[in-house]
């Protein structure tokens, strides 16, 4: 096994077990507000600590970037761990058992290793660049849809950037007439993992952060899928506007979205 995948899996399992244990003891969960409609708990921070400590034991020189505590610079800037310790905090707080730990390793800006771990279902999604994507050790192949007909699409509402709501709703209206149905799960990392697993056929969302999609992006690619921005380009690294699915589904999604995009979403 890739040595960094080994450490990423160890960190994700330790953090996932910590989250699952605390899911059983709601009184131990302390929630505070980061912004409007945006919460963080002591469990997000505790899981992050577990992950950082695990990585630091093996790779003290690497740089670590996390949602809750930002950048932990190492002497090695070319190797960056991009981490969301708990993706789906709103679900966790509401006691809706759908959330995950997301860990990616980027070397010179290219993602080499990805882990998304769902501790409630004990599902471990992994990928190494060029070596495919797996779920609990079994090879993943994304969905085989040829167009949007009959597809299930995952998405996330722009819960923070509500100025995008009108354009977003226009996109949903347009695509809804072409697909079978939508799912809105509340965890971007699991949405992307589910695209990789073919559990949903396509996915799009506005304004993700790097830690939301760093691991999921590699899972999708290694399962034979594509990830791009709303115009088919590569601006999603900065815009966080993401479309994912098999190449034919992505093409159909982009075609459906095209006329509904506001200027701000054309990147
Ligand atoms: P988080 O739980 O790590 O903050 C993109 O949709 C990301 O935003 C999700 O993966 C999730 O990451 C967060 N998110 C999704 N829906 C949300 C909501 N309604 N309120 C706050 N955060 C949300
Ligand atoms: Ca958050
Ligand atoms: Ca997240
Ligand atoms: Ca998070």
Automatic annotation (TrEMBL):
GO molecular function: inositol monophosphate 1-phosphatase activity; metal ion binding; RNA binding
Domain of life: Bacteria
InterPro entries referenced in this protein's UniProt entry, alphabetically: IMPase (IPR033942), Inositol_monoP_metal-BS (IPR020583), Inositol_monophosphatase-like (IPR000760), Inositol_monophosphatase_CS (IPR020550), Inositol_monophosphatase_SuhB (IPR022337)
Amino-acid positions noted as binding Mg(2+) in the UniProt annotation, renumbered to this chain: 67, 84, 86-87, 212
One of the GO biological process terms: ribosome biogenesis
Family matches, as PROSITE patterns: IMP_1, IMP_2
Stated name of the protein: Inositol-1-monophosphatase
